[in-house]
Amino acid sequence: MTPQDPATPPTRPRRTDHLTRTDRAAGAVVGSAVGDALGAPFEFGPAGAFSARFPDGVGEMCGGGGWDPGEATDDTQMAVLVGESLLERGGLEPADVFGRFRRWAAADPKDIGLQTEIVLTSGDSWDLAASLHFQMTGLAAGNGSLMRAATSAVYFAEAGREATMAAARRLAALTHGDGAAWEGTAVLHELVRVALDGGDPVAAVPGTLARVAEGHRPRWATVLAPDWHPDLATEFNGAVWPCLGSALWALRTTGTYESAVAAAIDLGGDTDTVAAVTGTLAGAVYGLPAIPARWTGPLHVPLPGSGGRVLDAADLVALAEALVRGPAPTHP
């Protein structure tokens, strides 16, 4: 599954207008989880490892690297916690989200980002922990707020562009004190909103960039440009800029959900998160029906700190169906 040259993007499938909003919402949530579980065994491996293992182009939930086949990582676990908080609290209550994160972190999840772990275990209050960490280290532009954004992007989409981008910033700020992470998560929220409305998120990039905070706009414009390629990244793709840039590149240079996620994993590096973000976008564009049953069948999401619960693909679909109703719109 070698990605096509970005200079000649493929034609999108002829018809996606038959998809319902729920098809797309479930595609985003399940698509993110599938990308996460597919990418996890290849994390920190070399470029091209996925296609080398599956040269016929039919990738499987192979497991490895400490992960069972189909097992989702912290990316999806945190996304579920966000989604359940939004539904149970009837909207965004940052303290509640942070409390769920903290209980999850204390339950010894199999994987947790270093920065996220430091913030959640610092003992500082929800409204200070991330900013204090950033003040002390100056390092808080990881991709950890992108990886968990599928559920919140679906929930806030109906509220409109300004509301969904504002919510993304507040959620990102719970663990990431660098505004670059806030703006990147806001961009992802908005591109998902466009896709859920049946639009093209690639075409929506210029308008979305106009809503990015001015101080961060030039750098985001660089990695989201139509001629940007992951080889041009100046940081490891565990950073927020190349992670989202790579996900958009994978969507832009392929023509199916499967090929987009495979292209993301083949980049190597932080494969679970890059594939999760790619899966969020590609799932929203192509919908749940485009995600192969051979990938959704083995999918499972353990939830440390939640009484031993393990969600499957059907549970994630039900979560997406509840989230898609979202809050009341705030735009005309």
List keywords for this structure.
metal-binding, globular, ADP-ribosylglycohydrolase fold, 2 strands, mainly alpha, Ribosyl_crysJ1, two-stranded antiparallel sheet, disordered N terminus, 332 residues, Ribosyl_crysJ1_sf, ADP-ribosylglycohydrolase, magnesium
Explain this structure:
With 332 residues, this protein is mostly helical. The protein has one domain (21-57, 68-325): ADP-ribosylation/Crystallin J1 (ADP-ribosylglycohydrolase fold, Orthogonal Bundle). The chain is built from 17 helices and two strands. The chain has helices at residues 21-39, 49-53, 74-89, 94-106, 114-120, 129-137, 144-147, 150-157, 161-172, 179-196, 205-209, 217-223, 240-252, 257-265, 271-286, 293-296, 313-323; strands spanning 300-302, 310-312. The protein has a two-stranded antiparallel sheet. It starts with 20 loop residues before the first helix and ends in a 9-residue tail after the last helix. Residues 1-14 have low confidence and may be disordered. Its cofactor is Mg(2+). One of its GO terms (molecular function) is metal ion binding. Mg(2+) binds at residues 73-75, 270, 272-273. Keywords: Hydrolase, Magnesium, Metal-binding.
